[in-house]
From TrEMBL:
Disulfide bonds join 33-247, 81-92, 97-104, 153-237, 158-220, 166-183, 187-196, 197-207. It comes from the Eukaryota. Gene3D superfamilies: Thaumatin. CDD domains: TLP-PA. Residues 1-24 form the signal peptide. The keyword Signal applies. InterPro entries: Osmotin/thaumatin-like_sf (IPR037176), Thaumatin (IPR001938). Pfam families: Thaumatin (PF00314). It comes from Dipteronia dyeriana. This is Thaumatin-like protein 1b. Keywords: Disulfide bond, Signal.
Length: 295
């Protein structure tokens, strides 16, 4: 009888540990571009750093990263990166973080760069996320939630290559080969408060979409196009993992509820899902009640 009781207690402790365990999400980065992308990662102030702040992602390659609960920060893709043979300094033409190494080590992306922004386990226990073109654009990017249990949870991002179509006064061209590599925001290009939503234009009432921000919005309806584009650009999920895809192909797209075209989300193993929080008191009552009945 004693060994049976010990077995039951062991199971109970395992269940309690499961119910009260630390939550995390799995972020999978997939490169569908025809070229190498070097993802950069920046944790928000006061949040735990991740296991890496920058890595290499070859064409067709995927890699996964565990992200702790209550983490906030951003991801982006660096392009046209190289390492100087003499100084060993690592630099990128777009999305450069200025660290001089593959790891960004706490520095963000130099604009223009397409950004994926996250606040996990925020208000109401929800994850908040968006793809932002406020700092400009350098490559297509999509966020695909997986296994969510609630919230306004949907695929978002920008799968259109905007570099060639970018307005001439926003376009960034690589000088050595004449390739269009990025598209600036109007704020970066002109520094005007009405484009930067600063000074007298620092409120939602005074800062309105411009013809430049509408270029981004028309091409990527669910992405942030300027600072106060919250209403159509911020999304929420509960209990999700996320796939961040660089250069998602529209050839595998499906229509969302508002008829925007988005790629079909990739399936992720159920083993990588986030365990949802359960109050320890409730779990303890259930487990102990079961034990008492067995005894």
């Amino acid at each position: 009888m004693a060994h049976i009781q010990l077995y039951i207690i062991t199971i109970a402790l395992c269940l309690l540990r499961l119910f009260s365990g630390t939550l995390s999400s799995t972020f999978t980065f997939t490169n569908k571009c025809s070229y190498t992308v070097w993802p950069g990662l920046l944790s928000g102030a006061g949040t735990a750093p991740l296991s890496t702040t920058g890595f290499t992602l070859e064409p067709g390659q995927s890699t996964s990263l565990s992200v702790p609960a209550s983490w906030s920060g951003r991801f982006w893709g660096r392009t046209f990166c190289s390492q100087d043979a003499t100084t060993n300094k690592f630099t990128c033409v777009t999305g450069n973080c200025g660290s001089g190494t593959l790891e960004c080590s706490g520095t963000g992306a130099a604009p223009p760069a397409t950004l994926a922004e996250f606040t996990l386990n925020g208000a109401g226990g929800l994850d908040f996320y968006d793809v932002s073109l406020v700092d400009g654009y350098n490559l297509p990017m999509l966020i695909s939630p997986q296994g969510s249990t609630g919230g306004n949870c949907t695929v978002t991002g920008c799968f259109t290559d905007l570099n060639n179509a970018c307005p001439s006064d926003l376009k960034v061209t690589e000088s050595s080969n004449g390739v269009d590599v990025a598209c600036k925001s109007a704020c970066e290009a002109f520094g005007d408060p009405q484009y930067c939503c600063s000074g007298a234009y620092g409120t939602p009432d005074t800062c309105k979409p411009s013809s430049y921000s509408m270029f981004f919005k028309n091409a990527c309806p669910k992405a942030y196009s300027y600072a106060y584009d919250d209403g159509t650009s911020t999304f929420t999920c509960a209990g999700a993992d996320y796939i961040i895809t660089f250069c998602p192909g529209p050839s595998t797209s499906v229509k969302s509820a508002n008829n925007d075209q988005y790629p079909v989300p990739i399936n992720v193993s159920a083993g990588s899902g986030r365990t949802r929080p359960v109050f320890i008191g409730t779990a303890a009552i259930v487990v102990l009640a079961t034990i008492s009945r067995l005894w």
